[in-house]
Amino acid sequence: MTSKPKKVSLSVGELIVKAVAASKERNGLSVAALKKALAAGGYDVDKNKARVKTAIKSLVAKGTLVQTKGTGASGSFKMNRVTETKRLQEDQRSSSAQQTSHRELCY
């Protein structure tokens, strides 16, 4: 028996973070809009409702997302500003590290 090759893609949590970060809504992205964005990205939301729900709850618990309206896994969510700035700083650090290593290779 041969097994199917596993499809390598982003986790549900990463997809949710990506969708919320792409949203420019002031009050955040509602769960319905979030599910639409996931479905547009090719994720089967109807089949994985529970997985989406638990991913949202865990992201709120971690502090990655902030819940602006509602309770539990319902309402609206937006990116936490603290984690947003940390991520930008890490990106800048990694890009500067890559530039310095590139400079060292050139000389």
From TrEMBL:
<dbReference type="Pfam" id="PF00538">
    <property type="entry name" value="Linker_histone"/>
</dbReference>
<dbReference type="GO" id="GO:0003677">
    <property type="term" value="F:DNA binding"/>
</dbReference>
<feature type="region of interest" description="Disordered">
    <location>
        <begin position="85"/>
        <end position="107"/>
    </location>
</feature>
<dbReference type="InterPro" id="IPR036388">
    <property type="entry name" value="WH-like_DNA-bd_sf"/>
</dbReference>
<dbReference type="InterPro" id="IPR005819">
    <property type="entry name" value="H1/H5"/>
</dbReference>
<dbReference type="InterPro" id="IPR036390">
    <property type="entry name" value="WH_DNA-bd_sf"/>
</dbReference>
<dbReference type="GO" id="GO:0006334">
    <property type="term" value="P:nucleosome assembly"/>
</dbReference>
<dbReference type="GO" id="GO:0030527">
    <property type="term" value="F:structural constituent of chromatin"/>
</dbReference>
<dbReference type="GO" id="GO:0005634">
    <property type="term" value="C:nucleus"/>
</dbReference>
<dbReference type="InterPro" id="IPR005818">
    <property type="entry name" value="Histone_H1/H5_H15"/>
</dbReference>
<keyword id="KW-0539">Nucleus</keyword>
<protein>
    <recommendedName>
        <fullName>Histone H1</fullName>
    </recommendedName>
</protein>
<dbReference type="GO" id="GO:0000786">
    <property type="term" value="C:nucleosome"/>
</dbReference>
<keyword id="KW-0158">Chromosome</keyword>
<comment type="similarity">
    <text>Belongs to the histone H1/H5 family.</text>
</comment>
<keyword id="KW-0238">DNA-binding</keyword>
<keyword id="KW-0007">Acetylation</keyword>
<feature type="domain" description="H15">
    <location>
        <begin position="3"/>
        <end position="81"/>
    </location>
</feature>
